[in-house]
Design brief:
By secondary structure, the protein is mainly alpha-helical. It contains four helices and no strands. Helix 3 (49-56) crosses helix 4.
Amino acid sequence: MNDQALRAAIDALYAVFSSYAPGSDFCGFCYSQDEVERISKTPVSELPVGLSRKLLWETGNHWQNAEVYRHYLPRMLEILALDFPGIGGQVN
């Protein structure tokens, strides 16, 4: 897939999943209050790679509901598709 087609597919993901609301009830053990605020208030397409990666690795029972997972899914897939630096290692 060329870069233009990949970008179009990613944009389509954001459009399809745009109706799902962000979560607000995240695990207080896994996330600091600052992280919860950033995750909840930052536009999904602008979430930092580190926080997005943390969401990607979250276990299913830590999600408020499936709709919240769907809200963040386009960003997680974008990061995987574009092979952002740091996904395999530690990202601050």
